[in-house]
C-alpha cells in the first residue's frame, strides 16, 4: 500500500468494491459525471428520456434527471418538480421511498422545513427498511432544529431558533455567559442569514465556480463514506482472531522478562577481585563507582561498571547465574570470565510481567484493523483497476508530457496534477513536489476517477452523513463567495494611492538608530572588574577549580579517600554536602557536586547551610584566577530556635514558641565564609596539578583539605566565550547577546542601553551597577543609523493595509444596507436565560433517622 502523507489524500485514496449500474446507458452518464462533463451528461439524459420504451426505463431516467438537477445544478425547484411527478405517476413503485426521501431533501434545501420533515417522517415510519430509512430518521432531527417553536429572532419571516443559538453557545460556553455576549452572537447569526439570502438572490448558489468548489467538498465526503462502507467497516477483527493473535505473540510482544540492574568490576586475577570485594564489604566509605574507575579493566569502567538493566541471555552464564541469585545490594564472589575475574553487584530487580489480553485488546484490535484495512484496500484497488480501461504513461512525468493518464476515456493532464499539488497545504507540499510525490498524486487522481464513478452509481451523496457535511459547508461557502464579490473584488488600488498613503504615513516606516550589543553580568563589582579585564585583554588567565573538606576532628580514612588522585571527588563530596531545597538557604553561592551542592568559598558569604550530616563539611570553588580569593569556612551550630534566629538574622523568638516544620528541618551546622584564607596558601594551589591535594591547612575550626580538580592554562578568549562561561545572566547561553537595541528599548535597563549607544565598535563600557547583586559591562559590535524604509520595500504592506480598510468599509456598508432593507424582529429576552431556583416545597427533604422502637 502506497504510504499517504496527509489526511486529505488518505480519504482521496479510499476505494471500494464495484457495483453493477442500473443499465449501460446510465453507466455512461455516471462516467460523464466523473469526467465533469455535465452538459453532455444532461443531454444524454434528455435523449434517454425521449427514447425510453418502458415505464421502468422512464422511471430510472427521470429519477436520474432529478438527481442531476438536485446534486449537480442546485436547481432545487426543478428537482422537486421531477420527484413530485414521479411520486404521482408511480405511487406503487418499489423505489417510491427513495423518491420521497429526495423530495424531502429538495424541500429542506428550499427552506420548507415543515414539509421536508413530513416527507422524511413518511420514509422513516412507513418504509424504515428502505434504502434511506435510517437516513430519513436522522434528517428529521435536522429539520426539527428549524421547526422548533422557541424562536429568538426572525429575519424576513425566516426563524432563528433557540436551539440553534444554544448550539452555537455550547461550542464555547464561557464566551457567552453574559447576556450582552449572547446578543452579539445573535447579531452575527442575523448578519449571516442576511448574507446568505442575498447570495441566493444574486445567483451565487448556481455559479459554476461555486458549484465546482462545492463539488470537491461533496466528493471528499462521498469518498469518506465509500471508504467507511467498503474498507473500514469490513476490517474490524473478530474476537476469535484477536485472541489467536494474542496467544501467538504473548511470549514475545507482551511479556517483559525478569531484569536486574548490574554493576561489575573486572580485574586480571582472582586475588585482586577478592581484595576489592572485601574492601567494599568492610569499609562502607569506599564507593563502588570510584573503585570501578580506578581498578576495572572493562570498557564500562568510566560508568562505574554500570551494565544497565539486563535480562537472561545477555551475559556469560556464570555472571548471569550470580546476577539473578543475588539480593539487592549484595556483592558476588569473584567469577572467572574470558578476560579475568569480575565481581558484580545488583542494585535493582524487576520481576517478569505479562500483559493480559484485556490490557492489550484495544491496541491489538487497532493494529489488526490497520493491517486488514491495508490488505483489503490493496485488493479492492486491484479489482477496480482490472475492471477499468486504464492507461498510464510511466514516462510522462519525467519527460514533461501533458497527458499523464486516461481512466475509462477520462483524461488526466499536468494541469490537474499541478492544481492538486497547489491545493496541498504549504507545510506538506514539499513532500509531494518531487518525482515520487507527483506519482503518488497521479495515482490518487486515477483512483478518484474510478471511485467517483462507483460512488455516483451507488448514490452515496444522498447518505445523511454526506448531506450533513455538504449542507454545513455550502452555507459558509455561499456567504464567503458573496462577501468576496461585494468587497474584495470591488477594491481597486493604483500606484498613486499607494504612494500617497506612503507619504502620509512616512513616520511608520522610519527605523530608529540601533546597536547590536553583548553583556557580561557578575554578582559583585570585584568579579565584574575581573571579568572586564579578561575581556579587554582577550585572554583568560590560568585558572583552577577545586573541592575541599573541613575536618573538626581527624578522620584518616576519609582524608585518604579524598586525597587519592584516582578518587571520584564529587561523588565523595556529595556525602558531605548541604541539604537540598527547600531546607537549604536560598540564593547562596553554591558549587554543584553531582546532584547536590556545597558552599562556594571563592565568594564571601555571611551564612549558608545547613549540612545534611555531621563533620566533615564539604566546600568547592570554580574558575579561580591568581587574583581571586578563597574564604575560610567557619562552622556554626544551630540546635535551638534562638540560635537559628540569630544565625539567620531574624528577630528572636521565645524557646517556648512553636517550631515550624521548615525551621525544625533547618537545625544543624551552618557555615560563614567572610575571612580570606592566607594568600600564600591560595598561591600554592596554582603550583599543584589536577587531582593533587595541598598540604592540610590548620584553622581554628579544624583541618582544611583542598584538592585541585581542574587546571586550565592561560588561553585566548572572545567576549562571547567569557560571557558563556562566566556571566551570571540568562543571556550567557547566547554569548551575552542583547541583539539589536533601540533608544526606547523597554526590555533592558536604561543604563545598559545608554552605555551601548555611547560606545564605539568593539569597545567596552565601564562596570555598571544595576543593583546590589548585579553588575554588568557591555560591548558594542555594530551600529545602524536611523533610516526610512523605501516605498518599494513596503508597497505590499501598504496595499494590504488599504485593501483591508476598503474591504471593511464595503462590508460594513453592505450589512447596513441589508439590515435596512430587511425586516428583523428580535424576540430574545434576558429573562429567557434566567434559571429559576427550585421551589422550596419541591426540594427533597433530608432523610431523618427513624426513632428507636420501644423495647418489648
TrEMBL record:
UniProt catalytic activity: [protein]-peptidylproline (omega=180) = [protein]-peptidylproline (omega=0)
Keywords: Isomerase, Rotamase, Signal
Leader peptide range in chain numbering: 1-19
Gene3D superfamilies recorded: 1.10.8.1040, 3.10.50.40, Porin chaperone SurA, peptide-binding domain, Tetratricopeptide repeat domain
EC number: 5.2.1.8
GO molecular function terms noted in the UniProt entry: peptidyl-prolyl cis-trans isomerase activity
Coiled coil ranges: none
PpiC domain span: 257-348, 678-781
UniProt entry tagged with the keyword S-adenosyl-L-methionine: no
Region (Disordered), start-end ranges: 837-856
Protein name: peptidylprolyl isomerase
UniProt source species: candidate division WOR-3 bacterium
Source organism phylogeny: Bacteria, Bacteria division WOR-3
Amino acid at each position: 500500500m502506497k504510504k499517504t502523507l496527509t489526511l486529505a489524500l488518505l480519504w482521496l485514496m479510499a476505494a471500494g468494491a464495484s457495483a453493477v449500474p442500473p443499465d449501460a446507458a446510465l453507466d455512461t452518464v455516471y462516467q460523464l459525471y466523473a469526467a465533469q462533463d455535465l452538459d453532455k451528461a444532461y443531454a444524454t439524459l434528455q435523449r434517454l428520456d425521449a427514447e425510453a420504451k418502458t415505464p421502468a426505463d422512464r422511471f430510472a431516467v427521470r429519477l436520474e434527471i432529478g438527481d442531476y438537477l438536485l446534486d449537480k445544478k442546485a436547481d432545487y425547484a426543478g428537482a422537486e418538480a421531477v420527484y413530485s411527478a414521479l411520486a404521482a405517476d408511480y405511487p406503487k413503485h418499489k423505489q417510491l421511498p427513495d423518491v420521497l426521501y429526495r423530495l424531502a431533501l429538495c424541500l429542506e434545501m428550499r427552506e420548507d422545513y415543515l414539509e421536508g420533515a413530513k416527507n422524511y417522517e413518511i420514509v422513516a415510519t412507513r418504509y424504515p427498511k428502505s434504502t434511506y430509512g435510517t437516513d430519513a430518521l436522522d434528517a428529521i432531527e435536522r429539520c426539527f432544529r428549524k421547526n422548533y417553536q422557541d424562536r429568538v429572532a426572525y429575519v424576513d419571516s425566516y426563524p432563528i431558533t433557540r436551539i440553534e443559538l444554544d448550539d452555537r453557545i455550547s461550542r464555547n460556553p464561557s464566551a457567552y455567559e453574559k447576556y450582552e455576549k449572547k446578543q452579539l452572537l445573535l447579531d452575527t447569526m442575523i448578519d449571516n442569514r442576511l448574507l446568505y439570502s442575498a447570495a441566493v438572490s444574486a445567483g451565487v448558489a448556481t455559479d459554476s465556480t461555486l458549484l465546482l468548489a462545492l463539488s470537491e467538498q461533496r466528493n471528499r465526503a462521498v469518498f469518506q463514506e465509500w471508504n467507511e462502507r467498503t474498507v473500514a467497516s469490513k476490517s474490524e477483527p473478530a474476537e476469535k482472531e484477536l485472541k489467536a493473535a494474542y496467544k501467538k505473540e504473548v511470549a514475545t510482544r507482551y511479556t517483559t522478562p525478569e531484569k536486574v540492574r548490574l554493576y561489575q568490576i573486572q580485574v586480571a586475577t582472582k586475588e585482586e577481585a577478592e581484595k576489592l570485594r572485601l574492601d567494599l564489604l568492610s569499609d562502607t566509605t569506599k564507593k563502588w563507582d570510584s573503585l570501578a574507575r580506578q581498578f576495572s579493566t572493562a570498557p564500562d569502567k568510566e560508568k562505574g561498571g554500570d551494565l544497565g538493566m539486563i535480562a537472561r541471555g545477555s551475559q556469560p552464564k556464570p555472571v548471569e547465574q550470580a546476577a539473578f541469585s543475588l539480593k539487592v545490594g549484595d556483592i558476588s564472589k569473584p567469577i572467572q570470565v574470558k578476560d579475568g575475574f569480575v565481581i558484580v553487584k545488583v542494585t535493582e530487580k524487576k520481576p517478569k510481567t505479562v500483559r493480559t489480553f484485556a490490557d492489550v485488546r484495544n491496541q491489538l484490535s487497532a493494529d489488526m484493523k490497520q493491517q486488514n484495512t491495508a490488505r483489503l484496500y490493496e485488493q479492492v484497488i486491484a479489482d477496480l483497476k482490472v475492471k477499468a480501461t486504464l492507461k498510464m504513461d510511466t514516462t510522462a512525468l519525467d519527460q514533461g508530457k501533458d497527458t499523464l493518464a486516461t481512466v475509462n476515456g477520462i483524461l488526466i493532464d499536468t494541469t490537474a496534477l499541478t492544481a492538486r499539488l497547489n491545493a496541498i497545504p504549504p507545510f506538506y507540499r514539499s513532500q509531494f513536489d518531487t518525482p515520487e510525490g507527483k506519482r503518488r498524486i497521479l495515482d490518487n487522481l486515477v483512483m478518484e476517477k474510478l471511485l467517483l464513478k462507483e460512488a455516483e452509481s451507488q448514490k452515496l451523496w444522498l447518505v445523511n452523513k454526506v448531506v450533513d457535511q455538504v449542507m454545513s459547508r455550502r452555507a459558509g461557502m455561499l456567504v464567503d463567495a458573496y462577501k468576496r464579490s461585494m468587497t474584495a473584488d470591488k477594491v481597486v488600488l493604483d500606484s498613486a494611492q499607494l504612494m500617497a498613503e506612503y507619504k502620509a504615513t512616512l513616520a511608520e516606516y522610519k527605523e530608529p538608530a540601533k546597536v547590536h550589543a553583548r553583556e557580561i553580568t557578575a554578582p559583585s563589582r570585584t568579579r565584574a572588574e575581573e571579568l572586564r579585564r579578561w575581556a579587554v585583554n582577550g585572554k583568560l588567565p590560568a585558572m583552577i577549580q577545586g573541592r575541599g573538606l573541613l575536618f573538626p576532628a581527624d578522620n584518616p580514612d576519609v582524608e585518604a579517600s579524598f586525597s587519592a588522585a584516582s578518587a571520584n571527588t564529587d561523588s565523595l563530596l556529595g556525602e558531605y554536602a548541604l541539604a537540598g531545597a527547600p531546607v537549604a538557604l536560598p540564593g547562596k553561592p553554591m558549587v554543584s557536586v553531582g546532584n547536590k551542592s556545597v558552599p562556594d568559598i571563592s565568594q564571601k558569604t555571611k551564612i549558608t547551610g545547613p549540612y545534611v550530616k555531621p563533620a566533615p563539611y564539604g566546600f568547592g570553588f570554580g574558575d579561580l584566577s591568581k587574583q581571586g580569593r578563597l574564604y575560610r569556612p567557619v562552622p556554626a551550630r544551630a540546635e535551638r530556635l534562638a540560635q537559628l534566629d540569630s544565625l539567620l538574622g531574624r528577630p528572636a523568638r521565645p524557646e517556648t514558641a512553636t517550631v515550624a516544620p521548615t525551621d525544625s528541618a533547618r537545625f544543624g551546622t551552618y557555615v560563614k565564609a567572610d575571612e580570606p584564607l592566607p594568600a600564600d596558601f591560595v598561591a600554592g594551589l596554582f603550583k599543584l596539578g589536577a587531582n593533587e591535594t595541598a598540604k592540610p591547612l590548620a584553622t581554628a575550626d579544624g583541618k582544611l583539605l583542598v584538592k585541585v580538580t581542574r587546571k586550565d592554562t592561560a588561553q585566548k578568549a572572545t567576549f562571547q566565550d567569557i560571557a558563556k562561561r562566566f556571566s551570571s545572566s540568562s543571556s550567557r547561553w547566547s554569548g551575552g547577546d542583547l541583539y539589536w537595541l533601540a533608544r526606547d528599548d523597554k526590555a533592558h535597563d536604561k543604563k545598559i542601553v545608554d552605555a551601548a549607544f555611547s560606545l564605539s565598535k568593539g569597545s567596552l563600557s565601564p562596570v555598571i551597577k544595576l543593583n546590589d547583586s548585579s553588575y554588568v559591562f557591555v560591548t558594542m559590535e555594530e551600529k545602524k543609523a536611523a533610516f526610512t524604509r523605501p516605498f518599494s520595500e513596503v508597497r505590499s504592506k501598504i496595499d494590504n493595509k488599504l485593501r483591508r480598510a476598503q474591504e471593511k468599509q464595503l462590508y460594513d456598508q453592505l450589512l447596513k444596507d441589508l439590515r435596512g432593507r430587511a425586516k428583523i424582529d428580535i424576540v430574545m429576552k434576558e429573562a429567557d436565560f434566567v434559571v429559576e431556583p427550585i421551589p422550596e416545597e419541591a426540594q427533597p427533604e433530608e432523610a431523618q433517622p427513624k426513632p428507636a422502637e420501644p423495647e418489648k
